[in-house]
Design a protein that fits this description.
This protein is α/β, with parallel strands linked by helices and 211 residues long. It has helices spanning 6-9, 18-28, 33-40, 45-56, 73-79, 93-96, 141-148, 169-178; strands at 64-67, 86-90, 106-109, 123-132, 149-160, 182-193, 198-207. It has a seven-stranded mixed sheet with strand order 3-2-1-4-5-7-6, with helices on both faces. It is globular and about 40 Å long.
Length: 211
């Protein structure tokens, strides 16, 4: 699928290996260029996802795992609504170093394509915004998100439209629905990076564990 003009400005979409992605983000984090680009491009993912999340999560003390937190853009948005119990994880230490001080309870450098070093049922919610994209995190991560989330907890995420089928996210989501691992609350196409004409699927699901 054509990457529209974002391919010219975001070579990240051409990267395949984890090491290449990490190096790219580390360089992108220099001089806080990452955050500046997100503003320039009108990157609406964190804002839009947070607006969906707060419709269903009414507990302001909810313990939230921000998977692929980058510079903390989701935490910044959710804080506006009174949430503060955030735990962040990202592949790039450079981006983690740019997260505003005291915004997150804990920040970990994590490869989300591997098992997450958190106990079962540790969180009330998982947020994953901008991480399911080219050369990044693959569908099996959803199993880990479900594992670390409490029964009736929420998983809220975006999937770049260009990889939704190519990487098998469509099949994975169908399978999780069939296996009653979660139930769909909302799933729709969002603007994501509106200025670049890049769309993403935005989903929020309630975890269903047979306890």
């Amino acid at each position: 699928m054509a990457q529209k003009d974002v391919g010219n400005k975001v070579p990240i979409y051409k990267l395949k290996k984890t090491e290449e992605v990490m190096k790219y983000y580390d360089e992108w984090g220099e001089g806080n260029k990452y955050d500046k680009d997100m503003i320039d491009w009108n990157y609406t993912g964190p804002k839009e996802t947070s607006e969906v999340f707060i419709k269903y999560q009414k507990n302001k003390n909810a313990k939230i795992y921000d998977a692929g937190c980058g510079t903390g853009l989701v935490g910044v948005e959710l804080k506006k609504y009174g949430f503060s119990n955030f735990y962040g994880a990202d592949l790039s230490q450079k981006l983690l170093d740019l997260v505003p001080k005291d915004l997150y309870k804990k920040l970990d450098k994590v490869d989300l394509n591997k098992p997450i070093n958190e106990k079962d049922n540790s969180f009330d919610a998982v947020m994953c915004v901008g991480t399911f994209t080219f050369g990044h995190v693959k569908p099996p991560a959803l199993d880990e998100f479900i594992r670390i989330t409490n029964n009736k907890g929420l998983i809220c995420f975006t999937i770049n439209e260009g990889i939704h089928e190519e990487y098998g996210f469509d099949k994975k989501i169908d399978q999780l629905n069939k296996d009653n691992k979660w139930k769909e609350i909302e799933f729709f196409k969002s603007n994501y990076i509106a200025s670049k004409d890049v769309n993403a699927w935005l989903g929020i699901y309630e975890v269903t564990k047979h306890v």
